[in-house]
Every structure is written in structure tokens, then in C-alpha cells.
Amino acid sequence: MTSKKLGFWSIVLLAINSIVGSGIFLTPGVVITMVGKLGPLAYIAAALLAACLAVTFAVAAKYVTKSGSAYAYAKAAFGPRFGFYMGTVRYFSAAVAWGVMAVSVIKSTLSIFGGDTNNFWLVTACFVILMAIITLINFGGEPLFAFINNLATIGKVAALALLIIAGTVLVIKTGHSNAATLAHLTDGHNHALIPPVTTSTFVMAVATAFYAFTGFESVASGSADMEAPEKNLPRAIPLAIILIALVYIGTITVAIMVNPQAIVTTKQVVALAAIFTNPWLRNLILTGALISMFGINIAASFNTPRILEAMATEGQVPQWLAHRNHRDFPARAYLITVILALIIPMAFNYSVPAIILLSAMVRFFEFAVIPLAVIMFYYGKAQEPLLPAPRNWWTDVVIPALGMVVTILLLIKYDWVGEFTLNGAINWYAIGGMIVGFILLPLAFAWFARRDHLSQA
Predict the structure, then answer these.
(1) From CA 378, how far away is CA 401, in angstroms rounded?
(2) Do residues 280 and 162 lie in contact, with contact meaning Cβ atoms separated by under 8 Å?
(3) What secondary structure, in 3-state letters, does 283-320 show?
(4) The whole model's pTM is what?
(5) DSSP H/E element including 426
């Protein structure tokens, strides 16, 4: 069976689509509120941190080209049992995170057009419709998916590029930057909106900005559907990070220069739209934000099911999940994933604190494990055969080691107390999500896999 696979530029666009979501459109004011006019510097530092980890994942792809990303790398480095656990928790968090991203699209769209975001049945109906559209795109085959993915990526980047260009023209035309006014902004009680910048607040701002760059770790999940992944992934992922960093830094810089007060104080859903008074520009940025949120759902629909498929191909979950239809699409793994992505947010009444925490925990787990795996690949200590890839001490040892240091820093600075409390009380959603994702689901997957093996014996 043959099918058209994603080429180099489609992989680059998939990587961009997997990373650029709602954050840069909705919450840039959070970073600016922390560090004021040093916001662009915080994004530069975050880009450097993300680049270390992105290069690490890209390097891993030259040694292991199997689908599954972190699952495949962990299994190759540490053996099947550790790989199974990594794959299970990664799959669960990715599936539920996809559901959360879909809900974010719905709620943001309803807010923009004046809909009731607290109406459970309205949100549910829109949620199901959105997931049905995404499903039709995936079942249309690789060419249709690539076309929609590329179009969504170009749309979101074009909206941000337009913002940068329009803001730059406005600053040049007026000959004035408003960045200095950040230091004088006050609230209704005459208190400064931007506190004095300390080392601690700057590190927190960098950590916050860093999450706008995450998503690169999932790009290689569908490497079996890519052309020459051992060559294309190590080039595509770093290139995507560079392009995204340039766009993010340009966006934040322009926002600070044009209308910093609006970006910090606005109550609009899409914060970036608030910096312009021109309704035409505002509407274009709103459209770009919606395209961006839809696009990251498209990327998640490609990456997430292929983690489950990869585990099935390796015989670590029932092998019938590895079946592909006549369009060479992992339909069974996809349908299980989309059902999970639908059910979990609905079961929690679209309250997402548990899912956010679970996603953060799994990312920290990946960012600590995969750099160590790459170092083991370099020194020939893997548990499974690797591709005969060229070894480079800087990219295969030094940068992964820096990635582990970055992860430790983020672990220390992460607001764990805040995540495990909700309105002053224990966050049982978070605790329940952790128990399901890290304990119950791995046990269930192991039981199903054992039954499958016994039935085939």
C-alpha cells in the first residue's frame, strides 16, 4: 500500500502548526505584566531554552525513525517497559489536551460572537461539530490533511505577520513608540501595573513564555507518514523554532511599541486585537486567532493517534489498533483517540485544571527523559538497534545536557501549589487526572495488551 507522505516543507508547517496556538494571541499580556518592556527579551530567552529541547528531539529522530516520538525514543533507550509507560502517559495527556484545545476554540469563538460559554449543551454541540469536521479532514487522506494543515499554518502566521507589519508602519509613520509608558501604568488604586523586575520575576516570565513554544515534542509522532524522517525532522524542527521565535519576538515588540496599555489591561478574548483601533485590522487578527486555534487542533489530530498506533505496532497495546484503512490512515487508533478527546472534557463539565496539570507533568517527564536518551544514543548504550546516524558531541551531548538543566529550572519554578489548589481548596480534578493518567491507564493498557497476547498464543 502506498500513499503520499509529508515532505520537508509540510513537516516544517506541521511543526509550526503544532506549536503556534492560542497563547500568542490570547495571553501575551501576562508576560508583559511580569517584566514590562523586557517582554521581548523574555521571549528570546524562552526561544533559546525551547531550541535546546527542540534540537534534542530533532537529534533523537536521526537515530530512531519509528512513529511515537518520545515513546519511540524512550523505548529504544531504556527498553520496552519504560517505553510502554512513557507512551501510555504521553498518549493520554495528548488526547485529553487535544480535547481541551478543541473546547478552547469553541469557547473563544462563542465569546467573540457573544455566545454563552457556560451553556453546557451549546458548548457540547459545537464541540462535537468541530471534532466531526476534523475527523472528515483526517479521513480524507494525507493530501487533504496536508493541504488543510498547510493552509491553517500559513493563515495564522500571515495574521501575525500582518500585525507586525501594520504596527511597524504605524510606529514609523507617527515617529513615536509607547514602550516607555509601561513604567507609568497604574490600576484604579494608583498602584503600578508593572512591578519592578527582579531575577525571580524575569525567570517566571521566561518560563511562562516558554510554554508558547511547546508542541515540538509531538511532531515526530507520525514519522512513519513523513518522507525521510531521519533527514527531514532534524532540519525541520529547529527551522520551525527559529521562524516561530522571530514571529513571537516581533509580535511582542510591536504590541509594546504601539499600545502597551491595551495589551496589559484589555478584557477582550483576543488580547492582540486590542492594540489597534482600526476595525479592519482587529477583525483580521481575530480571524487569525481562530485559524490558529483550529490549526493546532488539526496538528493534534495528526500527532496524537499515531502514538497509540506506534504502541500497537510494537505489540504493547492490542495490535488491531495498528490497522490502517484503504487510505493508509490509522482509523481505529484515531477513533479511539477522538472519543477520548470528547469524553474527558465533557465528563469534567469542561473544567480543565486537571488536564492542564497532567499535560505539564508529562512534558516535564519527556523533557527530562529524552535528553538522557539522546546522550545514551551517542555513547551506544541504547537497548534497541539504532540507525547508523552521524554523531556530533555538541548536538548529541552538550545541548541535551542543557535541555535537562532547563527542565530542572522549570520544575523548580512551576507553580505546583497553585495547580493543586482551586479557589483555595484542594484541586481534586488535578489529583484525579494524575491518578487516571499516571496509574490507572497504564494498568488498563497493560491488561488489554496481555489479553491480546494470550488470545494470539
Answers:
(1) 12
(2) no
(3) HHHHHHHHHHHHHHHHHHHHHHHHHHHHHHHCCCCCHH
(4) 0.83
(5) strand 425-426
